[in-house]
Structures are given as structure tokens and as C-alpha cells.
Amino acid sequence: MNISYCLIRGDVTVHNSPYYKSIKFSPDWKDLDTRQLPRWYDEAKLGIFLHWGVYSVPGFSSEWFWNNWKGGDKNIEKFMTQHYSPGFTYQDFAPMFKAEFFDSSKWTELFLKSGARYVVLTSKHHDGYTLFPSECSFSWNSYEVGPKLDIVGQLSKAVREVGLKFGVYHSLYEWYNPIYVEDKKNNFSTHYYADTKLWPDLKQLINDYKPSVLWSDGDWEAYDTYWKSTDFIAWLYNESPVKDEIVVNDRWGIGIPCKHGDFYNCVDRYNPGELQKHKWENAFTIDKKSWGFRKTMSLNDTMTTREILYQVASTVSCGGNVLINIGPTQEGTIAPIFEERLIDLGNWLKINGEAIYSTSPWLYQKDSLNSDVWYTCAKTPYNSQHPTAKPRVDDDISGIFAIFLSWPSSSLLQLKDVVSHLQTGIYKIELLGNKGVVNWKIESGVVNIELPDKAAVVSEYAWVLKISIN
């Protein structure tokens, strides 16, 4: 097999190099796991995820279009037979990915309106097509074929200009890259792909674009020793230009998800519904059937604003972040239904963001009497060692937030788990977005909170009570 090598720029990756004599973190999980989570990520709470690439051109099935097609998916085969000439290949879609209406400023304007604090773009999905001029993806990147743009470069600049953090998703593997296929055929006893393609691409991304998030994926076919994951993360934490800022997820090899990384994804749409000991993230997509754009998407296929707010409230209450995915069109526009959902979220956060941003889990997450209510709190000091931990006895809690997702028919909200706290001092309860306090009283171990007339309430979908010292 003829293998073309792509050199790693300026970095040595073997253990016997001088580079390892001065590292702070050793290239093993036990030591890497001792790194403290950069505080910005825990406080941000909300991010936007973007799956965009050649698969957006057919806009059919999902971002796994190529793999499913080659795997014999009958619906895709029928689609291709009906709409494309015989012999048409997946690579033939790439010149059609022109992104002619892509406007990074318009995108970032929407992201700002959504209330998100960071943005993660697919720099490369499993098809191997990169959205940056990869030095190892010759004629299979957005700079050479398709839009003829460095999309990662343009979007990273625009995102940072408006004060948001920028991150990249990067698939470790590539379905049909012949070098990877050769390594797989050899039961991953060889490392041609990892050494000559994966590492150089990752180093280029970090050095050229300095992302604050590296969202790894496509790890499940090989162990972390093949990917050389700990070597790379040690370099990332010790020597990279983003060593103090960057956060990584947990998808670095077989058996690694939910065990190692700055934050855990575990599985797609991960939402355990209870407090987690380690920082985690709930990545979900507004189109329930695909991460990439689908031209056949219907309104019923999309998450409602209420469903999105449920994910936000329940996730943040349990110590997680939410990463909300949308798939842009092949032309580079964002579908109006996605715009509407993100703007709805942003409008809600303008009123209720105090209960989300920079908050911490409270003593309880979901009220034991009213399962539609999720708690967060504002406290000091920040627990840098365990950001998802419950408040300590000596913590100063300046506010407890009760996020309720259903308005009670009688406008009388009943809660149980906050009662013992209310009995320790003189507290006031406010409905965020409305002036004045609300009346409340404790009876038989339950607090009854008299809500105002719903017609006079600003929020439309979910509501937040703030409990604080009077």
C-alpha cells in the first residue's frame, strides 16, 4: 500500500523525546484526570453545536449518508437512483457544497441572540472532509473543493469578535480513508493513520485556530492506545497554545467515555436526570432525526421550545452543560425553524438567565413533590475541585432558583424540598421577570406559593422563582 506521510509541525510525539522531561501532566489517564476544569466552561452552561459538511448537499437521511449508502440502505439507494446519474459518488457532492450564502457574522448574531456562550463546529466528520485547509486532506477540504473557504478560520474569528468561545468537533476516524482502513485491517497493530493523518490534523487545528473546546468523536473502533490519546492530551495540557483554556470531552477510545476527560458526553443526548460527580454535557439536536441538515425535515421532527427548556433546566440542575445542535444548509443558511427555537431560548434567558449562568447544583435537583421543578443555586466560593458538588455547609448561598416547567392550574405552586431551607431565616420569593415578591406559607411540610396572574407574566414557556434572604 502506498502511504503518504504528513509531518507533525514542530512537535515530537514519542515518549523518549526531551519534550516529556518538562511536562506538568504525564501521558496517562490517572494524571490527566487531576487537571482542574477551566472555570469558564462550567459557568457558560450553554453552547451551540454545528454539523455541517458535504452530507448537507444531499440533505437526506443524516450526516451518516455516505456510510449508510455504502452499507446498502434501501431508501438512500432509491433516492440516488431517482435523482442522480449512474456512477455518481459521494465525492461528487463536494463541488456542490458551495456555501454561497454563508455569512459568519449573521451566524454569530443568531448565536448571541440564543444566549449561548460557546460554539462548536464540526471541523471534520467521519467522511474525512475538513472545513479547514488541512495539510493532510488534499483536495478533500473546504478550501480546495466546494466553497473554497477556510470555514473554521472565518467562523472562529467571527465568534470571538462577539465575545463567545469557539470550539471544534473532530472525528478521530475516517470511514474510508485507505490508511485508516489498512490500520483497521491490521487490528490496529500499525499506526499509519494516527501518526500521519490524525495527529497532524489535530495539531494544525490547535496551533492555527486555538479553540477553547476540542470535542472528539469517532473513537469506538480502537483503544486509546491506537489513537495515542493520552500523548495528545498531555501535549494539549502542557505545551499547546491553549493549555490553560481548552476543555476536552471523553471520546478518546474504547472504554474511555464516561470515565476520562474534562467533561463527559457518555452517549449522544446524555441526560441522566440526577446529579453527577463529574462535569458532563448533554449534546442534543433540535432535529430529532439527524445532526446534519435534512431537506425532508418536518415541523414535527423538531424539538419544541418547551422540550429544549426542559433539557436546559434538568441538565444544568444536575451539573451539566447543554450543547444544542443545528445543521446548516448546503448553501450556508440556518433554517428558520432553528432560528426561531434559538431566539425563543435567548428571550427566555434574558429573563431567567440568572438561574442558569454561573450557577451550581443545589442540595436537591428535582423537587420530590413536584417533578416539574428543577433547582439551581448561586453560591460562593466557586468549587474548582468539584464544580458539580452540592453546596458545602460554609458556602454562601445568595439565591436558590426553582425552575418550573408547567404552570399550576390554580396558580398555586407547591414545593417540598425547599421547606427546610425557608425555615432557617427570613426569605423572600420573587418570580423572575415580574416586579415584587409573591406570597407564600408553609403548611404540613409543604410550601404553598401564590403565583401572579399568568396573563401578566413575561415568560411564556417556563418560569423561575428566586428564593433569597429578605
UniProtKB/TrEMBL annotation:
EC numbers for this chain: 3.2.1.51
This protein's UniProt keywords: Glycoprotein, Glycosidase, Hydrolase, Signal
Residue ranges occupied by any Alpha-L-fucosidase C-terminal domain in the UniProt entry: 365-467
Stored SUPFAM superfamilies: (Trans)glycosidases
Gene3D superfamilies reported in the protein's UniProt record: Glycosidases (3.20.20.80), Golgi alpha-mannosidase II (2.60.40.1180)
GO biological process: fucose metabolic process; glycoside catabolic process
Stretches assigned to the Glycoside hydrolase family 29 N-terminal domain: 20-354
GO terms assigned for molecular function: alpha-L-fucosidase activity
One GO CC annotation: lysosome
Top class in the EC scheme: hydrolase
Biological role: Alpha-L-fucosidase is responsible for hydrolyzing the alpha-1,6-linked fucose joined to the reducing-end N-acetylglucosamine of the carbohydrate moieties of glycoproteins.
Annotated family: Belongs to the glycosyl hydrolase 29 family.
Family annotation (PANTHER family): ALPHA-L-FUCOSIDASE, ALPHA-L-FUCOSIDASE-RELATED
Annotated protein name in UniProt: Putative alpha-L-fucosidase
Record organism: Parnassius mnemosyne
